[in-house]
Design brief:
Length: 338
């Protein structure tokens, strides 16, 4: 096999390590150990190699603008900002970078994405040849799967029964509707993610408009708990002991929190959108993410029905086995044989 070169942005960007790209790169490092170089210096590696751009970003300058390596592969996790431009304004620089990046798509031999739903978006929005797009479902990293659960310090007898949300806070996450539903119930909710850390909130960024509305809506309400970014062993404990995991997105490229929660036999309430039907199949409870009353009713149903929670938890656990590291590795490597 040819040598594989993977661009690693976490080498000089510490913030990347706690974002989705950091977790995905960690997965690549665990599964593609042999004959693979992770670097942020593309001038120092052999050009007679397979190059992988693991996070194709449409709004920053192109990582490559011409053919340099013998084979070039781009991983496009989703195109949500392109689908919903109104909610993801990019400014003048972002607009011109978008034009440049769309042109740079021509220098890549193939594309990898996280789901069949995202594949359709790449075909419809970017007009990429379907034959060049491969779906490779992500898996969980070793640290998440093998860590021993540790109870976080902020959990006590007053908040030991809770719902959990893990992720970002952009428009597509639909957090305001979730918050409205939770407020109508007598239940705690833990929101995990660095974006919820008060010391790191950039609520003036155009993409964080919905985060600002959400924070204002839940301010000083002790139903909502914000630990910020936490270690995997504490996150495992939170999933394992949560009444349910909630992800009511308008759209997603995958849906990691469903797999993480399912690995701990925790049931999920998901929005009834194509991507979640693809990932979870029938192994979750689904709801219209725009109907606050229905969301409240579904949460209440799961909170008060222990047998349903247990059944869905067991079923989702079996479903989570489909997203194994072995399958990820074999599917990923097969894409090179083109």
């Amino acid at each position: 096999m040819d040598k594989i070169i993977i661009f690693d942005s976490t080498i000089d960007d510490q913030m990347s390590k706690v974002r989705g790209i950091g977790r995905y790169l960690k997965l690549l490092k665990e599964t593609l150990k042999n004959n693979t170089i992770f670097t942020n210096d593309l001038n120092s590696v052999s050009k007679d190699s397979i190059f992988i751009n693991p996070f194709f970003n449409f709004f920053t300058p192109p990582l490559l603008s011409k053919r340099i390596f013998s084979k070039q592969i781009a991983i496009i996790h989703d195109v949500i900002p392109l689908k919903y431009k109104k909610h993801f304004p990019v400014g003048i620089k972002g607009y011109f970078n978008l034009i440049r990046n769309k042109k740079s798509l021509l220098i890549y031999d193939l594309f990898i994405t996280d789901s069949e739903s995202s594949k359709l978006d790449l075909i419809n929005l970017l007009k990429i040849d379907e034959a060049k797009i491969y779906v490779v479902y992500p898996s969980l990293t070793k640290s998440f799967q093998e860590n021993e659960a540790k109870k976080p310090a902020f959990i006590n007898e007053k908040n030991e029964k809770y719902l959990i949300y893990v992720g970002d806070a952009t428009w597509n996450k639909n957090l305001l509707n979730l918050a409205k539903a939770i407020k109508s119930l007598n239940i705690k909710a833990v929101f995990v993610g660095k974006v919820f850390d008060s010391n790191n909130q950039n609520v003036n960024h155009p993409w964080q408009k919905d985060l600002k509305q959400f924070i204002e809506f839940v301010r000083n309400d002790d139903q909502f708990i914000f630990p910020g970014f936490i270690k995997d062993n504490e996150l495992i404990w939170l999933y394992k002991n949560a009444l349910l995991n909630i992800l009511l997105s308008h759209d997603e490229g995958f849906g990691f929190s469903y797999i993480e929660a399912s690995s701990q036999k925790t049931p999920s309430l998901l929005s009834a959108i194509p991507i979640f039907k693809e990932i979870a199949q029938d192994n979750a409870l689904f709801v219209n993410q725009n109907n606050v009353k229905e969301i409240s009713e579904k949460i209440n149903q799961l909170v008060n029905d222990e047998n349903l929670r247990k059944t869905l938890g067991e079923e989702s656990y079996e479903r989570s086995k489909f997203f194994s590291k072995e399958v990820f590795k074999s599917t990923f490597l097969k894409t090179f044989n083109f």
